[in-house]
Write a structure and sequence with these properties.
about 55 residues; mainly alpha; about 65% helix
Length: about 55
């Protein structure tokens, strides 16, 4: 078991790092969504999906 871990340590660390970065990105999107921030980065005045994104 230790031999396998030492042989694959680089792959394990890189995969763990990517999973952490992905989780942080998803958490950021969730927080922004709860705060009512737009996901597209532009104003909603001329957006065709305005009624779907921001229900009143």
């Amino acid at each position: 078991m230790l031999t396998w871990l030492s042989a694959n340590l680089g792959t394990i660390l890189i995969t763990a790092g990517l999973i952490i970065v992905l989780a942080l990105a998803v958490l950021s999107l969730i927080r922004d969504r709860k705060k009512g921030k737009s996901g597209c980065g532009c104003g909603c005045a001329h957006c065709a999906m305005h009624g779907v994104c921001h229900k009143k």
